[in-house]
Specification:
Radius of gyration: 20 Å
Strand order of the largest sheet: 8-7-9-6-10-11-12
Order of helices and strands: EHEHEHEHEHHEHEEHEEHEHEH
Strand content: 15-25%
Helix content: 25-40%
Structural class: alpha/beta
Length: 329
């Protein structure tokens, strides 16, 4: 069953032939919507963006992304300069919001064919950071942050494996940056930069010719220079108990974000239990891997986050997403 929250586009949404468990019309604070639906079971929530008070303020959209399961949200955007700008779209994509369109056909399509990051990566760009305007994330210049949530979750080693795999596609266009540490040097890689949190945005801006930049965020609290961030969890009992004793709200803060289980021996059933207890959706489950060998798991993972190039023989998805369809394919 679905939820519809409408305002200016209520007549458009009224034409949807779907099962609706709850329908609302009007303008609402983002906190109101989260409060009403955070413990409410629904299949999909279709939100007319104009139903959110002050929707042009991106922090109000962020409140929804943190309070609700973004994979269940579909946004119908108005045709205005704010929401059609690449800056606005970049920000909501960085929140994990991939299902948005400007027309009713797009809504119908997304109900049964939800987007992944790969479907929207072509419209993402880095925002203006600390006075430095960075290059667009279109065919290249993807900046992906990787951060350990539990101790020793393996961010540095995973970056090494991802970089090796990406170099098969992008060659020398793959860079790795580590923040407040020098551990990557032990892997004897090329195109590696060590920097500080305050200098990270500037270092990224220097790499104008890079196709992909992988950032080991370590203990950095500033994730803003990254177009997307992956949060690594080693789901062993000792690691989980330790992180929860440090901060019992750890996983609440990860709702709507890309949680990746790394060095994980969990089964599918275990993952369902983990998601229920942690109240956080698992984006990908990576088993223990031998970093000395190429592994198909890494190749599949990169495909899931949209960092492998589309083969010219692949069929076009044919998605009806109005102005958000990738016209370059």
């Amino acid at each position: 069953m679905n939820v519809i929250i409408a305002n200016e586009q209520r007549e458009v949404l009224a034409s949807l032939d779907i099962d609706v468990i709850k329908s609302m019309s009007g303008e609402y604070e983002a906190e109101e919507i989260v409060s009403m639906f955070k413990n409410f079971f629904f299949g999909r929530m279709i939100i007319d963006l104009t139903a959110i008070k002050d929707y042009s303020n991106i922090s109000n959209i962020q409140k929804l992304s943190l309070g609700l399961d973004v994979e269940k949200l579909i946004f119908l955007l108005p045709n205005d300069e704010v929401t059609s700008s690449s800056g606005f779209l970049t920000k909501i994509i960085s929140m994990g919001i991939y299902n948005f369109t400007t027309n009713i056909d797009g809504i119908r399509y997304l109900l049964t064919n939800p987007n992944s990051y790969k479907d929207v990566a072509h419209i993402q760009q880095l925002n203006e950071l600390t006075g430095v305007v960075n290059e667009k994330i279109l065919a290249g210049n993807h900046v992906i942050g990787i951060k350990n949530v539990t101790d020793h979750a393996g961010a540095t080693t995973l970056i090494y494996m991802l970089k090796k795999e990406l170099e098969l596609t992008y060659g020398a266009g793959v860079y790795a940056i580590e923040v407040n540490r020098h551990d990557l040097s032990y892997f004897n890689m090329t195109n590696v930069v060590s920097t500080t949190s305050s200098a990270l945005a500037g270092e990224i801006a220097k790499l104008k010719d890079a196709d992909v930049i992988l950032v080991d965020l370590n203990e950095s609290t500033d994730e803003s220079p990254c177009g997307d961030v992956l949060y690594l969890v080693e789901p062993s009992m000792i690691r989980l108990n330790k992180v929860m004793r440090k901060n019992k709200n750890t996983f609440n803060a990860l709702r709507g974000k890309r949680v990746v289980l790394n060095k994980s021996l969990l089964t599918n059933k275990d993952i369902v239990d983990f998601e229920y207890e942690a109240k956080a959706k698992v984006f990908y489950n990576i088993p223990p891997l031998d970093e000395r060998k190429r592994n198909e798991v890494i190749a599949d993972f990169l495909s899931r986050i949209g960092l492998t190039k589309k083969d010219k023989h692949d069929k076009d998805d044919g998605k009806i997403l109005g102005l958000f369809k990738n016209k370059n394919n």
